[in-house]
Amino acid sequence: MPDSRDDGMDHRGLLLGDERVLGEVYDAYAEFVYGVALRVTADAAVAEDVACEVFVALWERPYAYDPLQWSLAAWLVAAAHRRAVERVGRGGQSAAGVGGESPDEDAVAASLAGLAPDLRDVVELSYFQGLTYRQVAAKLGVVESVVAERVRIGLVRWDAAARDGAGAVADDGTEARS
After folding, report:
1. Could you tell me which of 31, 138, 176, 178 has the fewest CB atoms within 10 Å of its CB?
2. One-character DSSP codes across 4-52
3. Which has the closest alpha carbon to 80: 131, 119, 29, 117?
């Protein structure tokens, strides 16, 4: 994920209808958004549609994104995941059982590698295998509220690690600093 974007500036530009900003945001995040959608849907055409829908939604409703609550990268990932899971739920394919990963999927997997295992597990199960929080909770033997909190923390730390370029997160879930 890009580390040189200013989410507040991007948000202001989007609110003002600056097409240049949308283009820059798209260039910075489209491959990553597509990779998330592809991991969930296992269908390149559906993943392309999902990625386009995410950026159209950002353009049409930039006020839906709040830079005080999310980084733009985390918001786009959440939007891509939500839309991809909706598509799978309507009869699309899921990534479970599909052999091989595309370069985009490899990039997503590599970016998750720095998360603490408990955070990485819930993000992978809910975001990339399309499981509900209830299913993840049952699979991991924890309550749903723990899953929800770990997903939130995992996405924030995943984005922070990617922005720092280090990708390293300590075993206790805090960002590792050198």
Report:
1. 178
2. S--HHHHHHHHHTT-HHHHHHHHHHHHHHHHHHHHHHH--HHHHHHHHH
3. 29
pTM higher than 0.85 for the full model?
no
Domain region containing 69: 7-164
Q: How far apart are CA 41 and CA 22, in angstroms?
A: 25
Q: Give the CATH number of the domain where residue 127 resides.
A: 1.10.1740.10
pLDDT at 33: 93
Helix and strand numbers (H, E) in the chain are 8, 0
Cα separation, 26 vs 177, whole angstroms: 30
Question: Hunting for tokens 């075993």 — which residue is that?
Answer: 171
Domain-embedded: residue 170: no
- How many angstroms separate the CA atoms of 21 and 67, rounded? 15
**What is the number of structural domains in the chain?**
1
For residue 169, being part of any structural domain is answered with no
Q: Does a structural domain hold residue 175?
A: no
- Give tens-digit pLDDT for 32-86: 899 989 988 889 999 999 999 999 999 999 999 988 888 898 899 889 988 988 8
DSSP letter string, 78-106: HHHHHHHHHHHHTT---STT-----HHHH
